[in-house]
Design brief:
single chain, 210 residues, alpha+beta, 2 domains, seven-stranded antiparallel β-sheet, two-stranded antiparallel ribbon, 33% strand, disordered C terminus
Length: 210
């Protein structure tokens, strides 16, 4: 394509919203037809502030645990109400391919904004269990596992971005009782657990109830 050119792109359901769809907006197994116009060209990964949706965006990331073989996941929330759960790719040996899974989750605007505020406040609420990303205490191990190198505690990643600028980026001890019992994590757990089955969130719940 050249700048000013247009193309029609057809996206099969398994590469779009699949069987889940988006209730009230996109039906299940919908075939998407998109008309795309090339507005400009940039260097690779050249994202500008105006490319981001207005408002703050939250990401909570749990990396895959190589010991229990449970898939990792990422939950993202925009304060405008858009949110989704992304599961780490799972190798499909029969099809000889990698299967990706993204699940849209509807949230009210007020609830989305509230989760983002709670995420920003975590270092104040539980400072002993939060690790600033630039503190020198974050240890990224092989396979993507994040740990606090002072005590070896595994960490979830909590990040808040506004217009491409970082507002908050921390690691939180994922077995912290205060974190697991926080209104922030409990709200997210209620949203994502139905989509996870025997997933990492259930492991954390067991730790809390033990």
């Amino acid at each position: 394509m050249r700048v000013g050119g247009t193309r029609e792109i057809v996206v099969s359901p398994h590469l779009a919203y699949g069987e889940a769809g988006i209730p009230g907006r996109i039906p299940a197994n919908a075939l998407l037809r998109c008309e795309v116009e090339l507005l400009e060209t940039r260097e690779h990964s050249g994202i500008l502030p105006q490319d981001w949706l207005p408002g703050k965006n939250l990401m909570l990331r749990r990396c895959q645990n190589p010991n229990d073989q449970q898939p990792g996941w990422t939950f993202t929330v925009h304060e405008g109400g858009n949110s989704r759960l992304s599961l780490d790719p799972i190798p499909d040996k029969q099809q000889r391919q990698i299967r990706w899974s993204q699940i849209p989750i509807l949230l009210e605007v007020e609830k989305s904004a509230g989760l983002i505020r709670q995420a920003i406040d975590l270092p104040k609420e539980i400072p002993e269990d939060c690790v600033d990303w630039n503190s020198g205490f974050i240890d990224m191990q092989k396979g993507g596992v994040i740990k606090d190198n002072r005590n070896g505690a595994r960490c979830m990643v909590v990040q808040v971005i506004e217009s491409g600028t970082g507002v908050c980026l921390i690691g939180v001890h994922e077995d912290s009782p205060k974190f697991l019992d926080s209104a922030f994590y409990r709200a997210i757990e209620r949203l994502i657990t139905p989509h996870l089955g025997s997933d990492p969130a259930s492991t954390l719940s067991k730790k809390r109830s033990a």
